[in-house]
Structure prediction request, 321 residues.
Amino acid sequence: MKAIRVHAFGGPEVLQLEDVPNLAPLQPGEVLVRVMAAGVNPYDTYMRAGAYGAANPVLPYTPGSDAAGIVESVGSEVDLAPGQRVYTSGSISGAYAEYVVCKRSQVHLLPERISFAQGAGIFVPYFTAYRALFQLAVAKPGESVLIHGASGGVGLAALQFARASGIRTIGTAGSAEGLRLIRSQGVDHAVDHSSADYQKEILDLTSGSGVDVIVEMLANANLANDLKMLDQRGRVVIVGSRGTVEINPREIMLREAAVFGVFLWRVPEADAAEIATAVHSGLESGALNPVIALELPLGSAPEAHRRIMEPGARGKIVLIP
Prediction:
């Protein structure tokens, strides 16, 4: 079978399409999925570069945790059948491939209304968004949320969850296309974060009081200013950061605010099960609809890694084996 392999940490060029031995679920509780689409996430690029700290994979490896496809075969003690449509929330063997082996707990039924490409955009974006909004920030109906970078995968997921839960949404994007996208998704207020006075615009939208929750995709650029846009007892949840940042702790103290960080790989099992249930319900009801920006062939994984780190995200990038 074909798979992307990484033999040395480095730039996108280390992603190599290779022929590898066929996979089989050799252990009880394992599932073999024929991959119809694999999702690309920013964290994939950090792992590829060897910049993910203790979570760096052992070389060589196949990247990817997010896939959607069809159950090919199952090991013992698995309550799935060949032919079922599924998406994955992690894997054993890596999702950038024609087939992937997963634990049963990493495989979830994919509603018929959701395409395979959309299914490949579920796990990291939607599990992260739910974790940030409801399990960490404990956002409630009637509160306000600022989604910084709302046109990306996690941003769109957070926007859809918030709208479905009665939370007032303010979303930022840095391009006209991104702003159009989040408006089409029903954001209450769309703000251009490339504007010099965007922070004042956000405060004006809250009559100067600030927002209750901020979902932050680029903390190294925004966290210091985020703290100044919080209401009393406000919460910032950091989803992404690409460096260090200097903040004034007094901004937190004055508001009795809180700052959380999301690390999806350490979510407790019970919390992950709650997220999966909420995601399935939203997908079935139509409240959640992954947005796909670009589909590329599996061999174009290097291009996908370059594109996902460019500014102006507008949905998910997926690879098609």
